[in-house]
Amino acid sequence: MTRNVSLGTLALVLVLAGGPLPVFAQSTSSDQPAAAQPAAAPSDDGMVTVFTASKIVTMDPGWPEATAVAVKGGRILSVGTLQDLKPWLDKYPHKIDRQFESRVIYPGFVEAHSHPVIGATALTRPPLSYFPTANPYGPAFPGVKTRRAALAKLAEYVAASKDPSADVVAFGFDVVPMGGYLDKTELDKISTEKPIFVWDASEHFVFANTAAMKKRGLTKDLAMKFPGVGLGADGELNGQFLGELPTQYVLAPIITQLLTPQIAVKDAKYLSDLAQQAGVTTMSELAFGAINIPLEHEVLKTAFDTEAANQRLVVVVEADSFVKAYGANATAEAKKLHDASNDRLMFEGVKFFSDDSFLSFGMEMQNPGYVHSDKYHGVFMFDKPSDFVTSMKPWWDANYHIHVHTNGNAGNQATIDALDALQKEKPRFDHRFTFEHFGISTPEQARRVKALGGVVSINPYYVYARGDLNGPEIGVDRANTAARLKTLTDAGVVVSLHTDTPVAPPRPLEEVWIAVNRRGAISNKVLGPAERVSVNKALRMVTIDAAYTLGVDEKVGSIEAGKFADFVVLGDDPATVAPNAIRDVPVLATISGGRVISTRDTRKPPQ
């Protein structure tokens, strides 16, 4: 799923890769954003603010509900009733904030896997998405439902681009409902002169016309360097670059141009505002350094390392990029970032890749594989399993929290086997090795994850948005049991939910709704009903359990004394409304370190 935006005339004249889309997420001002000061602790003048509500759900099993929470210096002082808070209120000057007295307060939602740098860059390109997705500042882009409609929309973007030297980069082409990959032949019919890059909905594939490949200097020798680079019958590049590695290589120069403060910070703000409107108070960056480490760091510092930010950010470095940049010093350089973390910008962990994308069928599937194996095939991100283990070993030995992007059941099996090998060489406890996505899995794999001490972060949109689409290609049984939740939790595995934005929009209450109902977006049928979980369990997956899989559960995820005062204010209680109404519960505000942020305010485009 991709970003939806309003497509007026103004949008169509701003389709160049060299600039964002002001009508959606950007200001038309040429002023560069002021550099943010490093986050400082909130001023503590001794004053306590007490927020009251009709119900406060804490996610602390021993103290589950309250009606008042006291905040001092950006942290929770105490939670309970006003009478329970009396010992603290007798000690400190205080004020009672009753603006949410008739509302429901939960811990601020935690987005356990997103991409506010590259993902936000993708979201602010001209859209070609199949599914509609909300725009924080206006109407939704409705989506394009056929291949012909997608190509027609792309032709509009190309026609609107007046600079002959500028690339057109569109995002969100959805391979499965659109009938397969694009190639240079189709794209050359739109233009043989204008460079065209089509970035697919998974972010892992890119398709290019002849002009784009020529400008980028791409030759057939690239096929020897990366798996997934397509060659035609003539032995020349066919315009298909399938997989995270070739896509990163092809798009890196373009994305680097977009990582300037006046563009990238506003792109990050776009995603941050979208997340705030859904109640997210802690975001994550799960691929830091994939394009340019210094530029990405500057963007994150400017966008998130400030008390004015909507969210805190947990940053996970990408191992391959750090090894390429720093060699044998990669783990030490990552530790420097960790040691320099503060309350707003927290560097925690390292990321690896097992297999490729779920959306575009780059994931590796066990026997019987894909129904149309001549059309789709998976891609492993390593040459052989021993290389996979070897790449992780220095980080494992240095006690890093390891996250692994893994999707198909063959990819998941390879990741489980790698964790097994690491544990045998150096046993670790509470390592929180996190299986990211875990799209297609088996009950046996759930048991092994538990036995090895792993945790799992699931993308529930793999069943909601993809279950109806994927049956013809991987079988109805596997498509409907994608994003297993009850199998994992019954096995005792800690599970969080995420959206992998821009794969899906950051909407925690919709994630909970999916986990509880498991209805297909197209058919509205219940898909894999035995994998549904309770509302309370699903709510934990976007609060305390999400914080746990990120390694920050001692700071956020529940309303407990000493933690950051990060809350979401809701118009109703998702635990008590009808299951089908969970995603419709209004998000009225978030509270970050005691600072109230109204969702009304983040619906205004930045100036």
UniProtKB/TrEMBL annotation:
The keyword Transmembrane does not apply. It is an enzyme of class 3 (hydrolase). This is Amidohydrolase. Residues 1-25 form the signal peptide. Gene3D superfamilies: 3.10.310.70, Metal-dependent hydrolases, Urease, subunit C, domain 1. Its EC number is 3.5.-.-. Residues 103-597 form the Amidohydrolase domain. GO terms for molecular function: hydrolase activity. Keywords: Hydrolase, Signal.
